[in-house]
Amino acid sequence: MNINFSNKEYRLLLDLIYMGTWVLTANEVERYTKVNRYDELAQKIYALAKDFGCEQLIEYDEEHDEYLETAEFEDSEVMEFLEDFEEFTFWETLISRMAERDFLKELPPGSLERLSSEEKFIAIQKHEDKWADEFQKHGLDNLTTN
User: What local confidence, expressed as pLDDT, does residue 109 receive?
Assistant: First the structure.
């Protein structure tokens, strides 16, 4: 199977591969075996960089025997997308976890099992709204430890 890409499409593909790889490996020190299949495909695509006029973005590292993103690539627009994603994910996760914590704290012992999914959703949503409003107004300023 052959797929033809323009130089612009190839450049976009590099961005997508980088973002996907970032999500898969951002929190790990060593790459796990389960992401190797993605790395192998990324390497195959990265190897074509020169053919598509992107040699300033991807370079071959002989010491590690792999293609790597250059500083120029990492300073590109793709990092803005990742920063926006991380910012959104941070706040959504924090709000969700705080809401779930508050929801569980207010429940009488043994009552969780008696609530329907809809009742849980509505109760947690009220707490999420409260936390979203708090963080919108004050950021992290009012979060303290006991």
Answer: 86
pLDDT in tens, 17-52: 999 988 888 776 565 566 688 889 999 999 999 999
Is this model's pTM higher than 0.85 or not? no
Q: What is the dihedral of CA 8, 83, 17, 29, to 10 degrees?
A: 150
Q: And the tokens for 34?
A: 């389960």
HEC-encoded secondary structure of the chain: CCCCCCHHHHHHHHHHHHHHHHHHHCCCCCCCHHHHHHHHHHHHHHCCCHHHCCCCCEEEECCCCEEEECHHHHCCHHHHHHHHHHHHHHHHHHHHHHHHHHHHHHCCCCCHHHCCHHHHHHHHHHHHHHHHHHHHHHCCCCCCCC
